[in-house]
Amino acid sequence: MNGQEMTSKQKTVMLTTAQAIVRYLAAQYIEIDGKETRYCGGGFGIFGHGNVTCLGEALYDHQEELPLYRGQNEQSMGFAAAAYAKYHLRRRFMFCTASAGPGTANLFTSAALAHANRLPVLLLCGDAFVTRLPDPVLQQLEHFGDPSLGVNDGFRAVCRYWDRITHPAQIIQSLPAAIATMLDPADCGPAFIGLPQDVQGWTFDYPLSMFEKRVHRIRRQTPDRREIEDAAKLLKGAERPMIIAGGGVQYSGATGELQSFAERHNIPVVETIAGRANLRNGDPNNIGPIGVTGSNSANAIAEQADVILALGTRLQDFTTGSWTAFAQDATIISLNVARHDALKHMSTSVVGDARLGLDLLGEALGKHQAPEGWLKSAQAERAKWNEYVAENVSMTAKDGSNRPNSYAQAIGAINALCDSNDRIVASAGGLPAEVTANWRTLEPGTVDVEFGFSCMGYEIAGGWGARIAQAENEPEQDTIVFTGDGSYLLMNSDIYSSVLTGRKLIVIVLDNGGFAVINKLQNNTGNESFNNLIADTPTVEAPFAVDFVAHAAAMGAIAERVENPAELGEAFKRAKASDKTTVIVMNVDPYEGWTDEGHAWWEVGTPHVSAHDKVNAAHRDVESARARQRKGV
Question: For residue 96, is pLDDT > 60?
Fold first, then answer.
């Protein structure tokens, strides 16, 4: 009897471990807006001796159901998978497969990014032989006192679920557990499954029921009524309430409910970095982004608010200004599906889904509205911020003179020309702050500023993953990547990936000659420029500018250099009209043109004593704000 056929009496099928994993993944579906679609959108893979012979064999027979995208770098594959999941609001995921040893080790950073951002990614990674008969094998790390310990064990720290398969039968339990972790709104994050090279090819008679189609649904946890009542009582008693809207609002599909709730109850809304694009720019209750990279308007009302509803946010330090953004006696209500986040800083916690929580809070508040004057004062602050942004992104100063090229100008030029549903992707360096402060949202859910892990190299890889996801739904959308020269040099090979797969990107490379935002931090803390800008790196003998145009063109992209934001706008129009990946390069000034308004205090470690007077003065300046820091834990 063929090993792939069902045995006559026991309703089982003999498969290798790898074949069973792939067949199981292909059978998992999810219901989204009443429609069923495959939960796993496919995967990213680089094959090596640790995964090609067995897992590769299994994937070959499921290419239609689980398309496999060939990556150029394992770390960038993980970034692309995270961006894919983020685009789909965690309702679909991609797997990544890498060989044993350095291939798998390269996924560590991307697993950490997915963990910090609470994004579902499945890592199927090669491992050493369970039998240990051929030990030590190629690329195996040996630990003298623990032969079971290897590279893969390090992923325990950066994954929500971790397992090493030492017998084929184990996946009957492990795969559903990994899927359940990725589906859980409270525990969502990467799942790791280590696959020893011998076990991948071992067979087992699996129950045929394991491979039947299964339709999953995202759980919506209803908040406890008593917690809702406590929160409503606080909001009813507030004179100056405020909502901090985080990324969880989008994952819950609650942007519409947020808009209605804020309008009905007269409450101003500020957005976190992850929550950018919860509300449109012109929404009357949208007072702007909050925190270290925020807006004067949001930070001004945060200082005055007496009751703060933190909605779907983990209250990271860039949101809270290292916990100096709020009044010491302000009361925080945290509505979050994750208990861990709902309890932060002695919040009045409401554990549950954001959309359901807003509905229940709305019922409990009834017709209650916050004082009208409070919202009007917040809107006045937002009007002033809008004026600042308009000036900040303009190509000329108020006196009509030209200004040095800046991130803000580039952002303004693209913002004025892009389609409302185009997706914006940015990550580490100065661009997250500049996009957060200056981007004027056209439609909800169109901005991905990865700042949970603030990871250099996410930009282009994340753009590729987002574009793959976009093509499944609305191919007419564009993905627009903002990246600096530093991140580009760190990880750029998915320009080639996008060309190979026909997943068009528009990549804006803003070259400031090094790591300019860290140079800015260095200077702002009294230090001299050192080892950040190429020009200030003492071990550089012959500084020169990288020809990013030639480099991108060598990977198959259309590429051009522009001299100013006006030319950038014209180049962007050409990129929009093209069906190929386009890279547009523009130099920006490393010192001038930074957004210098809207910043809350941020705690960074500074020397308590230094031989340099400027460093000592900067330390005293940093410490002077510490008195405003909330002490709640």
Answer: yes
Say if residue 537's pLDDT is above 80: yes
Domains in the chain: how many in total?
4
Is residue 399 one of the residues assigned to a domain?
A: no
Query: Which of 418, 385, 548, 494 lies closest to 82, judged by CA?
Result: 494
Q: Which alpha helices (DSSP H) does 134-251 contain, by range?
A: 171-183, 197-201, 225-236, 248-251
User: The domain that contains 412 carries what CATH number?
Assistant: 3.40.50.970
CA angle, residues 571, 572, 574, in degrees to nearest 5: 65
Of the candidates 15, 627, 95, the one whose C-alpha atom is nearest the C-alpha of residue 327 is 627
Give the pLDDT of residue 8: 47
Name the residue range of residue 498's domain: 404-587
39 plus 186 within the same structural domain: yes
What CATH number corresponds to the domain at position 234?
3.40.50.1220
Q: Strand, helix or coil at 39?
A: coil
Same domain, 239 and 317: yes
Q: Mean per-residue pLDDT for 82-93?
A: 98
Query: Angle at Cα 595 formed by Cα 592 and Cα 597, nearest 5°?
Result: 125
Owner of token pair 């409503």: 232
As a whole-number percent, the residues of the chain with pLDDT over 70 amount to 98
> How far is Cα 82 from Cα 177, in angstroms, rounded to an integer?
19
* pLDDT(319) > 50: yes
Distance in angstroms (rounded) separating the CA atoms of residues 467 and 462: 8
Cβ pair 240, 305 in contact under 8 A = yes
Cβ atoms of 408 and 392 closer than 8 Å: yes
At 458, the pLDDT band (50, 70, 90 cuts) reads very high
Question: Is there a single domain that holds both residue 187 and residue 274?
Answer: no
Q: State the pTM of this model.
A: 0.96
